[in-house]
TrEMBL record:
Organism: Pseudomonas agarici
Highest taxon in the source lineage: Bacteria
Alphabetized Pfam families for the sequence: tRNA_edit
Record-given protein name: YbaK/aminoacyl-tRNA synthetase-associated domain-containing protein
Domain YbaK/aminoacyl-tRNA synthetase-associated, chain residue ranges per copy: 30-146
Signal peptide: none
A GO term for molecular function: aminoacyl-tRNA deacylase activity
Length: 159
């Protein structure tokens, strides 16, 4: 399998979380994967690894609904600076063990802050996300996600 996928399954099982696993064709684009999953785009947890512009060692996993766009200035302010930027693909792989598009909304590296836009966790009873692989998704009860991941909730979406 895949180490992050296995770690997610183990983590969710150890907390007796309510989730379902979906295997599907590889897809990382939010709208298309929502259609494959049979979920709404806003249920999708789009996870993007970012850093504070000019300070490559300050990382945040910014998670927002698949139908929203990330506001780099809001995220930058949350990190104590002016503007955030996406990390390079190699950095994302090194820090998360996943390719861009497959990163789940969980942090397994203490160098990364988990920041979640509250619109993700307030609109639906379940969230959906790629499970460390582009061909595997999980649909997880929102209440379980919040209890297990314990994210910092902050408005990081563009209005």
């Amino acid at each position: 399998m895949h180490p992050i996928f296995d770690r997610l399954v183990s983590l969710l099982d150890s907390h007796a979380a309510t989730y379902r696993l979906l295997m599907h064709d590889a897809e990382g684009q939010s709208a298309r994967v929502a259609q494959i999953r049979g979920t709404q785009p806003g249920q999708g947890a789009k996870a993007m690894l970012c850093t504070l512009k000019g300070q490559a060692e300050r990382y945040a996993l910014a998670v927002l609904p698949g139908d929203q766009k990330l506001d780099m200035k809001k995220l930058g302010a949350a990190l104590g600076g002016k503007k955030a930027e996406l990390v390079k693909a190699e950095t994302a792989m090194a820090l998360t063990g996943c390719r861009i598009g497959a990163i789940p909304p969980f942090v397994f590296d203490e160098r990364i802050q988990l920041i979640v836009d509250p619109t993700l966790t307030s609109r639906y009873e379940d969230i959906a996300f790629n499970a460390g692989r582009l061909d595997a998704s999980m649909v997880l009860a929102t209440r379980d996600y919040l209890a297990i991941a314990r994210p910092r909730l902050l408005d990081i979406s563009l209005i």
